[in-house]
Design brief:
mainly alpha; 66 residues; globular
Length: 66
């Protein structure tokens, strides 16, 4: 059964900063929407109300990646 979410989005939803960092380190696409096409990782991070998580995700979006 599909949940229409990415692994990165699940890690954000579960407030797992370490898992988020590992997924990004190993190439998770930070600009993708969920499979339904409706939530960005920044929107999900903001919904957690965790400043450290929001700050980390926002920093990813504002830094160009190769």
């Amino acid at each position: 059964k599909s949940t229409n979410t990415t692994a990165l989005q699940v890690a954000i939803f579960r407030d797992n900063l370490l898992k988020i960092q590992l997924l990004v380190k190993y190439g998770a696409d930070i600009k993708t929407l969920n499979k339904a096409g409706d939530e960005t990782i920044q929107q999900l991070a903001i919904s957690t109300n965790r400043r450290d998580l929001i700050s980390y995700v926002t920093s990813l979006i504002n830094v160009p990646r190769n």
